[in-house]
Structures are given as structure tokens and as C-alpha cells.
Amino acid sequence: MHTAGLLFSGGQDSATCLAWALENFARVETIGFEYGQRHDIEMTCRMEVREAVRDAFPHWAAKLGEDHVINLAGLGQISETSLTRDVEIGVYANGLPTTFVPGRNLIFLNYAAALGWRRGFTHLVAGMCEADFSGYPDCRKATLEAQMSAIELGLDREFTLHTPLMHLSKAGAWHLSKTLGGDALVEIIRRKSHTCYKGVHSDLYDWGYGCGSCPACELRAAGWDEYAGVAG
Known about the structure:
Blueprint: E1 3-7, H1 12-24, E2 27-34, H2 42-56, H3 58-61, E3 64-71, H4 73-78, H5 104-119, E4 123-125, H6 141-155, E5 160-162, H7 170-192, E6 204-205, E7 208-209, H8 215-231
Parallel strand pairs: 1-2, 1-4, 2-3, 4-5
Antiparallel strand pairs: 6-7
Helix pairs in contact: 1-7, 2-7, 5-6, 7-8
């Protein structure tokens, strides 16, 4: 009987991980981060996903614990990126996308573990993936393992990081959602979660809301098309 802290942005990946965590843990506390993100609509969507999952899945509702929101405004202030500034999305000279926020996932894990140290949970769940992602070096398994080693040393406590999407494609993530909660969960994630980097949440496509042209939308749309083709 364990409690897990879930890094929960309200996007497709973290929404899928919410269902996975509720299926595998006795209690799940969600953790959101405000860091001046351009797509801050996700802070509203994450609560809508929580409520929709609670209402649709009574056997999970009792496991869904507190939600925590951590203010990391300083991260946005030092990040000159397309995710924290209203500038064109592109690619840096070193090949990294301009939506890469340096240190973001590393900082998220530090704060989540610090919260867990106080709250008494040592399991963290996060939606990082190195199989089908935007090229972010802090999504790689080796990076995350190194960070967790530092956290364990620094907090003098054993922590376990669970990344159920690490080796899944976006289509695989949709398939996992179907396995965990059937069409009802897929529809919640499709209609309630938010992924678009530009923060557009007015246009509904087959795969969900978004601008339809940013890298996050394109990745999500391609995954949906592959999933729907297999599902059909």
C-alpha cells in the first residue's frame, strides 16, 4: 500500500500516467508546476482531467489524493525559450528545439521529491519518454536515473521513479490509455487534456484541442492517426 506523487501537467502523457498510477498505487497525489509557461491553459485543463477521471472511474476516485501546485516563476524568468516567451518555435543551432526549457524536468523532480519527503511518499510517477519525444535531453532514461541518484543522496532517502511511457510511442500511449480505462478514458484524454505549445484550446481535432501546427500538436496528431488506424 503505497502513495505516489505524480508530475501532472494535464497533457496527454501525464493524463495517461494518472490512470496508470491510480491503477498501481493505493493513493496518488498530483503535482503541477507554474513556471510562466506560454500554454498556461494546461493549469486549468489538469484540474478538468482530474475531475473527469474521478467522476468516470469510481474505483479510482477514492485513491485520488491532494493536488499540489508549485510556483517556479524563476524558471520562466531565466528561460528564453518558445515555451516561456511568445516567440516563433524553431530549432537552435545545436539542434535542440527552442521549446526546450533547460533543466525543467530536473527541477520538477527535485521539487516533487522534496514534497514527497515532507508528505511521506517515495514513489514518483512522470510521463517522460525517450522513444517518441521532442528531442529533450532531460527526457532520457540515463538523465533521469542520474538525477534520481543525486536526489536520493541529497535527501538521504530512497526514491523510485516510474516512467510508464518511457519506451512507448505516442500511439502506444493512446493504446495504454485504452487498456487502462477503455474508450471512456481515451475520450477524457482526447477532449480534456492539453498538449499544444501555443496554448490554443479552441479548435477540436480528432486527436484533441490545439493549434494543429506546433510540434506538440503534430506529434499528438500522428500518434492518434496511428492508434486510430490500429484501433479501427
